[in-house]
Amino acid sequence: MGTVHARSLDPLPMQGPELGLQADDMDLGEPEHEEKQEVLENKDVVVQHVHIGGLGRTKEDILTYEIADVFRAKNLIDVMKKSHEARQRLLRLGIFRNVEVVIDTAEGADALPNGLDVTFEVKELRRMTGSYNTMVGNNEGSMVLGLKLPNVFGRAEKLTFQFSYGTKETSYGLSFFKPQPGHFERNFSVNLYKVTGQFPWSSLRETDRGVSTEFICAQITGICTIIYCPKKHVSSYPHQMSIGSAYLRCAWYIALVDKFHLLIFLVLQVLSTSLWGGMLLPLGDKPSSIADRFYLGGPTSVRGFSMYSIGPQSEGDYLGGEVYWAGGLHLYTPLPFRPGRGSFGELFRTHFFLNAGNLCNLNYGEGPRAHLSKLAECIRWSYGAGIVLRLGNIARLELNYCIPMGVRSGDRICDGVQFGAGIRFL
Fold first, then answer.
1. Strands across the sheet with 323-333, in order?
2. 133 in Cβ contact with 116 (< 8 Å)
3. Quick one: which of 161, 165, 239 has its CA closest to 193?
4. What is the 3-state secondary structure (H, E, C) of 357-380?
């Protein structure tokens, strides 16, 4: 049986009675000549030593499991295949930047005529890496900072910290990951996090603290939610704290006609319509939490209304609803006179729209007919026109002139120019 050496070695010279080969340079699936392949496959060899060079803080015992199959190879083709598989397993650990493989004839006093030495030259990742990026959502943005410590204790452990600061939400999380030696998919992980969200339309702040532990296929998660409202006189939602509250929350989005093209006056038009809906059913006697309810209104849903300013409200604060629907009909056309045709101007479109929707709470003593009747009453709707700018294939910007209709007492409207940015629009 061969031995594993964790010292750094230069690649052995390609000389001797056998052929020195670079594993990554060989085409394992399609040898150039069938006769040569047959000779290599039938040539019995013995892997005498496996060397791992370039180790620093990595412990050699974690690597023994990943390269053990190389010793079981019986011919040169098999050696190359198993060496390549071992290289992939080493990279999968996430602790090496690069892994190179050199297969050469065995040397030394114990060298056999058909003996081979396999050398893995590795380059470890730095002790600490950082990242910075920005994220854009529906009328919100955030800055994300990350810090990662790979191979913390030398056995492929990973410690990760992430901090996010946004216009509506601030969060940070700490996670620890440790694989089981020889079984990377059987790992142990612990995650701690805290998320604080601001709901200015409801004058409240929600803080979620959670911890989750996962081992192999079993996961345990605990979440503590605290909802704070500085307006103590608002009886609709006093201070709330829930641990593991259960709800059945369903939402659906249907594109009835997606990018239906009409050729009108030899200019390509796009007609699009969509329908949204959702329902929240508390599982038990407790009422639904204000933070779990649906909200409607704003430049990404029912345009012409302020952000989440449709539906039940108390003293100027919007409480959301347990059921809602919203629909939209849109016509997109090229800009008049086609400025920037064939270049930057193709990212812009003229936008004509008609939106409608409603939101309310459920009375569980009433039947489905009464619920449908509520959703059909006091429908808010709006229409208007504007300009759309596509940002890649993900996000877009809209600048619309909106005319809100069906306005009810307490609704906040945006009668006139309204700007929206996001990744999902009605």
1. 247-264, 267-282, 323-333, 348-360, 380-391, 395-405, 416-422
2. no
3. 161
4. EEEECCCCCCCHHHHHHHHHCCCE
Q: Which range among 238-242, 267-271, 348-352 has the greatest average pLDDT?
A: 348-352
pLDDT, tens digit, 9 for 90 and up, residues 139-193: 788 899 999 999 999 999 999 999 999 888 899 999 999 998 888 888 899 999 9
Residue type, 98: N
The residue count of the chain comes to: 426
Q: Is the dihedral of CA 329, 335, 338, 342 positive or negative?
A: negative
* H or E stretch covering 180: strand 169-180
Two tokens at 188? 């142990």
pLDDT for 237 equals 40
Please classify residue 389 by burial: count the beta carbons closer than 10 Å to its beta carbon, then call 0-12 exposed, 13-18 middle and 19+ buried: middle
Residue 137's identity, in one-letter code, is G
Helices 76-92 and 34-42 pack at an angle, to 10 degrees, of: 80
Contact status, residue 114 vs residue 46, Cβ threshold 8 Å: yes
Which amino acid, residue 246? A
Is residue 174 within 8 A of residue 194, CB to CB? The reply is: no
Spatial separation of the C-alpha atoms in residues 418 and 423, rounded to whole Å: 17
Ranking 83-87, 170-174, 177-181, 262-266 by mean pLDDT, the lowest is 262-266
Q: How far apart are CA 391 and CA 385, in angstroms?
A: 19
Instruction: Confirm if 374 and 360 have CB atoms less than 8 A apart.
Output: yes
Q: How far apart are CA 104 and CA 119, in angstroms?
A: 8
Widest CA span in the chain = 94
pTM over 0.85: no
Q: What is the DSSP letter of 82?
A: H
Around 407, how many Cα atoms within 13 Å sit in the side-chain half-sphere? 17
Residue 318 contacts residue 308 (beta carbons within 8 Å): yes
Span 90-122, pLDDT tens digits: 999 999 999 999 999 988 888 898 899 999 999
Single out the residue of 236, 154, 175, 158 nearest to residue 202, CA to CA: 236
Question: Rounded CA gap, 57 and 61, in Å?
Answer: 12
Burial class (CB in 10 A: 0-12, 13-18, 19+), 243: exposed
The two three-digit tokens of residue 375, written as one number:
């959703």
Q: Which residue has the tokens 């409607």?
A: 296
| Cβ-contact 309, 301 below 8 angstroms | no
